[in-house]
Design brief:
Elements lengths: L1 H14 L5 H12 L4 H8 L3 H9 L8 H15 L3 H10 L3 H4 L1 H8 L6 H34 L5 H7 L4 H36 L28 H12 L3 H37 L4 E2 L1 E3 L2 E6 L7 E8 L4 E7 L2 E8 L4 E7 L2 E6 L4 E5 L2 E4 L8 E8 L2
Parallel strand pairs: 1-10, 3-11
Antiparallel strand pairs: 2-3, 4-7, 4-9, 5-6, 5-8, 8-11, 9-10
Helix pairs in contact: 2-6, 3-4, 5-6, 11-12
Length: 386
């Protein structure tokens, strides 16, 4: 397989003596890096025939000069060459008609219909659209003015429509009934407590102030002058609230509950810390082959988790490509000792050229790419554990 790739890479340069200078530079740089035509085509997502067309200056490789120039720029960037130099050499090899931008625009747009014809046909539709827009804008402006006007009372409008009268009266009636029921219940409890205190307390207890009922006139005689109202009121408060002993007991229970929650929180944090340490512990990831190709699994991670990808070149030039959902999102060529980092969510695919001189780390976990076949190039999928 390697001999066939080398033969395909060498034949076009040897047989095409009319190859332009930029094509010869691309071919020589590619061969110096040890890359085959198919490898470059895979990285640029083109066909091998189009790669050879750029190297030999074949004008039929792409549909137009614009496409050729764009792919030449990507090809030079992949090989680490000077893009400006390659594009300059390509422009110099073109005809004068293709170099002139005004002539090129006139040539490519000569088949289009005049703009005046299109605007004349669409003028009526645009006028109707503007009319509708102005009507809507006027309605919105009027509504905003009415809402911001001080004399405009939104509540009066709602009341005139009958939205609030019934509900407001009903709520007020229910609140009044609830207050009356609570007052009657509290009065009954106070009367019961007063009777109990009359039986238990001594007769020589000093007289206390009487409680005047709201519906009793100021000059009316006090009927309950000897009733111990403050004591009964205090007991009613104790029934509705809590005594100091109950408060102390409640504070103790709450303190014990808070201490238990704190202990549970510490145990949960310690457990999570141990789990994180187990996940972060580096391990060598094996690359295995199945019916869909080569792949590896990153343990302890789920789909969508960002992964730190470290790419290194140990003792030679290597090239790398990263694919997400089948699209090339990152690619780089590293010289000896070079290193680069990327970050992408799981899952994704990594392609490595000259793999025996390359190293791949996923969140600090080394990937054993050397065992993925005998070829110098490997492409493997990285999947989450779950």
């Amino acid at each position: 397989m390697t001999d066939q790739n080398e033969k395909q890479n060498q034949d076009p340069v040897e047989t095409s003596s009319n190859a332009p200078e930029y094509g010869r530079l691309l071919a020589e740089t590619r061969e110096a890096k040890g890359l085959g035509v198919e490898q470059v085509a895979s990285q640029l997502r083109l066909s091998p025939k189009q790669i050879l067309g750029m190297e030999t200056g074949d004008p039929k490789a792409f549909a137009s000069v614009v496409y050729t120039r764009a792919h030449l720029r990507s090809y030079a960037r992949l090989l680490g060459m000077d893009e400006g130099k390659i594009i300059s050499l390509f422009n110099n090899s073109l005809n004068l008609e293709d170099r002139d931008q005004s002539a090129f625009i006139k040539k490519t747009t000569s088949g289009l219909r005049p703009y005046q014809e299109e605007t004349t046909k669409n003028g009526k539709g645009k006028g109707i659209g503007w009319l509708i827009f102005l009507i809507v804008l006027g309605i919105v402006a009027y509504a905003g003015w009415r809402y911001s006007n001080e004399s405009f009372n939104f509540n009066s409008v709602k009341e005139s429509l009958g939205f609030m009268n019934d509900s407001k009266e009903k709520v007020e009636k229910e609140v009044q009934e609830e207050r009356q029921a609570v007052a009657e219940e509290l009065t009954a409890k106070q009367a019961a407590e007063e009777k109990k205190e009359d039986k238990k307390e001594p007769e020589n207890k000093p007289a206390e102030k009487t409680e005047v009922k709201p519906d009793q006139p100021n000059n009316a005689p006090a009927e309950t002058s000897a009733a111990p109202v403050p004591v009964a009121s205090q007991r009613a408060v104790n029934q509705l609230g809590t005594t100091p002993e109950e408060k102390a007991l409640e504070e103790k229970v709450m303190a014990d509950h808070a201490r238990q929650l704190e202990e549970q929180k510490k145990l949960a944090e310690e457990k999570n810390k141990n789990q994180v340490q187990e996940v972060v512990k580096p391990r060598t990831l094996a690359v295995v082959q199945n019916q869909d190709g080569w792949s590896t699994v990153l343990p302890g991670y789920v789909k969508g988790t960002p992964v730190q990808i470290n790419l290194k070149s140990t003792d030679g030039d290597c090239w790398f490509g990263i694919y997400v959902d089948g699209k090339l999102v990152d690619n780089t060529t590293l010289k000896q000792g070079g290193e680069k980092q990327f970050s992408h969510p799981l899952p994704f695919r990594i392609t490595v050229g000259n793999k025996f001189r390359a190293t791949v780390l996923l969140n600090g976990n080394p990937v054993n790419i050397a065992e993925s076949g005998k070829s110098g190039t490997v492409s493997f999928q990285v999947f989450p554990e779950k």
